[in-house]
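Per reviewer request, we include the raw input and output of the structure prediction for the construct analysed in the revised manuscript.
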Amino acid sequence: MTVSDVIIQDKEKINWQDICLDDTNRNLLNQLIKEYNYVEELRKYNLPVNNKIMLEGSSGCGKTTTAKAIATVLNKPLYVLDLSTVISARIGETSTHLKLVFDKAAKDRAVLFLDEFDHLGKMRGKDDKDVGEMRRLVNTIIQLIDYFPDKALLIAATNHLEVIDIALKRRFQLTLSYQMPGPVELDGYYNKLLQHFPEHLREVPRKYDVSYAEAKDYLFTELKAIIIHELEQKQLAEV
């Protein structure tokens, strides 16, 4: 198995202003971006940039989008690794694959996005042998994180921060929490999505108590249904 078999290079560009963040998270990430802009000056004071970030919280609330936006604004390639697909029963092989991925990200000065990071914790508890093997894998990842250079950026995402090994969590300088959006946040998101559409399409009924991802899927499905209906009516009128 090669590196290209386990990671995906995500080339989607996300504008920094298009990500949905609360004030706390936006301030933390703005500081992060500024650190990279002034990295050489900070090194004169022996101050390292924060390059290990944990994103935790509900699915569909912006963790992956945040990673894409960071890669875009820093002009770095984004490599995505889903840990649930790379962790196998053969822990030794998993460690080798992870080392290849970390080495490539470091060499390319990339943003490495580790999705489903909690999968490490969920693999525990079957029997003593499994616990021992998982502990060795955790130790391997700890070493990879410790030696990950600050010219690259590591972002881990999880829906279940509580199951992750404490020693692993301590390696991340920043932890950002993502919550389900309320009506005000969703209205702002709907307005942003609808601003590029004609006025008559902006009156779509809105759905609440959903994540940003669910809201986007719902809205686009409704818009497509309206547009297709209008096209069909126009075709019938022309017959």
